[in-house]
């Protein structure tokens, strides 16, 4: 592909690669087929006048936010709405410029024509787009997640949001936790499958909704970062999953069996913000807030605000020179969000009560879900930690600051991030061990309860068996004497005395009791035999002396 390829050339090149078959190349492109069709759709569906068919427009909010660091280390912010005019302005403002650092934010779902423009302008590896849109890939393709070399220049940061149920819509009346979790999984899967070329630009991407308990739920999103170097400068592409649009179908009620059942309360604004911290921030924070926003209780709607508030506390000269330092705020936001997610897992475990078998089953399901979540976070934390320790992907030629003062500032920021992520990784490891320990304890307790219940049932069966054993001899003798047998009644039909039945019953009953306790009688007899045998041996020994 030429160095000045157009957006159409970018999409067409990927489409041609997706048609490469294994018999023609060692690098077949079938795994790019979904992405290629998505990127090429605007050019495949040309309008009658020959213009490109643009994706539908969503509400007026920035789809792309561009930050430019100039040679004088001045940070400029440019915003682009998902309109044809916004796309044209982005095309103009992203023209090649030497010695310039740029941070480009995508908010939510990005239409293909925008991705083609950015991809062709900065020669972006299509793997970056494919990995962020991996939910569009068919499940039968198993190449993701790939090897380290396939995403060496791509860093994936988890963004965790915590939501609470509203007081007027409690979870208790909405079915069991297992039912709510099943609904959440199904709706998330359906929501992701509905995203495509006709999706309005800026629509939020929700990768997972986890119902923790009757009070909280967790929303999983991502921030994917790729740094491209060109013409002596660098550009960091930061793709956010967007804000939490609670009007989206993934959060809306659904009818099930005539009842209003939903995994997330509709119109609930109780999405807890991610609380960041730095030393003495409470003393300098008010200077960063516009006066008319002080005291404004607007609900927090997710991480879309990152693109608007980025870079206010960064050193602009250092950020202009070093892309890793320019991205440290994003690493910090991800760390604080994961920390809150782990806090919720630990809080849920502390509040669990297991007083019955049903409670134990629910607790085991909670622990299984928590284990899956923590294990996924551990894997990502380990990858991010290695990225921070090398201040970028190993082997990648990211620009570096050269002045000693800037190098010290970058090293301090990297050390702080490394300590935070090391703490998170150790905490996740400890939490995973606790989950495994509590799972084993619950299983042992459930087995003990089952054993106690089986023992109780066995005792009742033994009592019933003993009662049956008592009545069987009596029933036998009564049946025998109830038969008109000549040997019993005689030929002259003389009546037998009741004592005859009593004597026979005592004999039969005694024999039955002897059989019932035969093992005990046998052990007792052997013990007596051993005792008297030792006594006889001692007597013979004395007589011999």
Automatic annotation (TrEMBL):
Species lineage, top-down? Eukaryota, Fungi, Dikarya, Ascomycota, Pezizomycotina
Q: What is the species listed in this Swiss-Prot or TrEMBL entry? A: Aspergillus calidoustus
Q: Which residues cross the membrane?
A: 461-486, 498-518
The entry's protein name is: Uncharacterized protein
Sorted alphabetically, the keyword list is: Membrane, Transmembrane, Transmembrane helix
Q: Which SUPFAM superfamilies match?
A: Magnesium transport protein CorA, transmembrane region
What GO molecular-function term can you cite, just one? metal ion transmembrane transporter activity
The protein's topology relative to the membrane is: Multi-pass membrane protein
Q: Where in the cell is it found?
A: Membrane
| Any GO CC annotation of this UniProt entry | membrane
| Top-level taxonomic group | Eukaryota
Q: Which InterPro entries match?
A: CorA_TM1_TM2 (IPR045863), MgTranspt_CorA/ZnTranspt_ZntB (IPR002523)
């Amino acid at each position: 592909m030429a160095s000045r390829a157009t957006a159409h050339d970018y999409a067409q090149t990927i489409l041609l690669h997706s048609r490469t078959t294994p018999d023609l190349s060692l690098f077949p492109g079938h795994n790019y087929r979904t992405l290629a069709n998505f990127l090429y759709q605007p050019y495949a569906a040309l309008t009658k006048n020959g213009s490109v068919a643009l994706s539908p427009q969503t509400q007026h909010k920035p789809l792309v936010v561009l930050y430019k660091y100039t040679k004088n280390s001045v940070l400029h912010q440019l915003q682009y709405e998902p309109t044809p005019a916004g796309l044209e302005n982005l095309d103009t403002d992203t023209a090649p410029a030497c010695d310039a650092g740029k941070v480009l934010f995508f908010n939510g779902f990005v239409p293909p024509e925008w991705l083609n423009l950015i991809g062709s302008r900065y020669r972006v590896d299509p793997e970056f787009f494919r990995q962020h849109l991996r939910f569009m890939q068919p499940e039968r393709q198993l190449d993701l997640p790939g090897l380290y070399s396939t995403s060496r220049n791509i860093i994936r940061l988890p963004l965790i949001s915590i939501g609470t149920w509203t007081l007027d819509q409690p979870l208790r009346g909405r079915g069991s936790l297992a039912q709510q979790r099943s609904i959440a999984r199904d709706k998330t899967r359906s929501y992701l499958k509905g995203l495509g070329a006709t999706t309005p630009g800026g629509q939020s991407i929700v990768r997972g909704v986890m119902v923790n308990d009757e009070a909280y739920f967790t929303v999983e999103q991502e921030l994917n970062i790729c740094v491209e170097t060109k013409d002596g400068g660098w550009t960091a592409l930061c793709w956010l999953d967007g804000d939490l649009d609670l009007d989206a179908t993934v959060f809306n009620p659904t009818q099930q069996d005539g009842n209003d059942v939903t995994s997330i309360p509709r119109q609930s604004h109780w999405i807890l913000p991610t609380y960041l911290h730095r030393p003495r921030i409470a003393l300098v924070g008010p200077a960063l807030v516009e006066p008319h926003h002080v005291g404004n209780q607007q609900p927090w709607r997710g991480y879309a605000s990152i693109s608007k508030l980025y870079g206010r506390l960064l050193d602009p000269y250092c950020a202009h020179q070093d892309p890793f330092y320019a991205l440290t705020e994003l690493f910090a936001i991800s760390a604080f969000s994961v920390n809150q997610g782990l806090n919720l897992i630990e809080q849920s475990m502390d509040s669990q009560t297991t007083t019955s078998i049903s409670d134990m089953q629910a607790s085991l399901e909670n622990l299984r879900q928590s284990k899956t979540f923590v294990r996924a976070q551990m894997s990502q934390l380990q990858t991010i930690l290695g990225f921070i320790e090398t201040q970028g992907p190993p082997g990648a030629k990211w620009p570096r600051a050269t002045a000693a003062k800037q190098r010290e500032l970058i090293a301090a920021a990297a050390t702080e991030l490394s300590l935070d992520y090391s703490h998170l990784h150790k905490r996740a490891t400890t939490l995973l061990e606790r989950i495994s320990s509590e799972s084993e304890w619950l299983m042992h307790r459930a087995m003990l309860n089952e054993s106690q219940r089986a023992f109780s049932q066995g005792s009742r069966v033994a009592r019933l068996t003993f009662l049956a054993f008592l009545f069987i001899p009596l029933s036998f003798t009564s049946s025998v004497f109830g038969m008109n047998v000549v040997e019993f009644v005689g030929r002259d039909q003389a009546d037998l005395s009741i004592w005859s039945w009593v004597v026979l019953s005592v004999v039969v009953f005694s024999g039955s009791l002897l059989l019932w306790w035969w093992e005990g009688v046998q052990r007792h007899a052997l013990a007596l035999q051993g005792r008297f045998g030792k006594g006889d041996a001692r007597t013979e020994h004395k007589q011999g002396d």
